Amino acid sequence: MKTLAAISLSQWRDIKFILTDIDDTLTTEGRLKSDAYDALGRLSNSGYKVIPVTGRCAGWCDHIARMWPVDGVVGENGAFFFSYDHVNKNMNNIYSQTEDERRENFIVLNQIKNTILESVPGTAEASDQDYRITDLAIDFAEDVPKLSQNMIDEIVNIAEQNGATAKISSIHVNCWIGEHNKLTTSLKILKENFGLNDKEIQSNVVFVGDSPNDSMMFGFFNNSVGVANVVDMMHKIVSPPKYITSKYSGEGFVELADLLLKDK
Q1: Per the CB 3.0–4.6 Å rule, which of 30, 82, 180, 206 could disulfide with 65?
Q2: Cα–Cα distance, 176 to 159 (Å, whole number)
Q3: Is residue 263 predicted with pLDDT exceeding 80?
Q4: 9 contacts 198 by C-beta, under 8 angstroms
Q5: Fold identical between 2-96+180-260 and 99-176?
């Protein structure tokens, strides 16, 4: 991985879209601090399109799309894209599955949840689970004492053995049934909602994240950035980011934003 200083001026000038993970990328120790939120606003006010790409729940994402200085949000690991039209006061929702598919899949996910909670001591369903529409989130570090890597791997094994996709974030194992993921939905909305072609996607977009759940995004985008705490999870990241910030979590996001805005 290279430092941000290795990104050429022409690369910086071409960036128009910032896709960003939330937990431990925008947030620091579980909180969205004022400097990171301010960085979102500064980027948006300077004309950048800012799109969080997160494993967080539909309830959170409705709020984020409405209230944050962003141009939409990909949530529940690609299950949907929400964007709010402030002029016409309308929420635009694009889903990866039909309502019937989501209902049927949740029956299986509830069975998986029960198996995990019974089999892996110390786990819990995520505190925001009631506000999810596609995804099962198992908490291993947010509101419970952090579990060992072996226990986290066992959560993944149980989910996968029962037909679900399972991805590790910095705090949850997210489990879902379906072909969608952060990358597939991000590419769909970049092309269909924002009109980018394949070449523009690689030159005009930067992605920033921190965990194994971001591996596909890191691997796909030419301009992929890990905040410094990504090194703690590197043993689990198949495709590492091309660049890394010198600062951790939300401060790393601010570092990236400051570089993008340097000549604005």
Answers
A1: 82
A2: 9
A3: no
A4: no
A5: no
- What are the sequence ranges of the domains in the chain? 2-96+180-260, 99-176
Contact at 8 Å (CB) between 134 and 185? no
CATH topology assigned to domain 99-176: Hypothetical Protein Ta0175; Chain: A, domain 2 (3.90.1070)
If we measure between CA atoms, which residue out of 4, 47, 44, 50 comes closest to residue 256? 4
Tokens, residue 238: 């198949």
Q: How far is CA 2 from CA 100, 148, 185, 202, 242, in A?
A: 45, 30, 27, 18, 6
Q: Mapping DSSP to helix (H, G, I), strand (E, B) and coil, where does residue 254 land?
A: helix
Query: Chain-centre distance of CA 215, in angstroms?
Result: 10
- Check: pTM over 0.90? Answer yes or no: yes
User: pLDDT, tens digit, for every residue of 67-99?
Assistant: 999 999 999 999 999 999 999 999 999 999 999
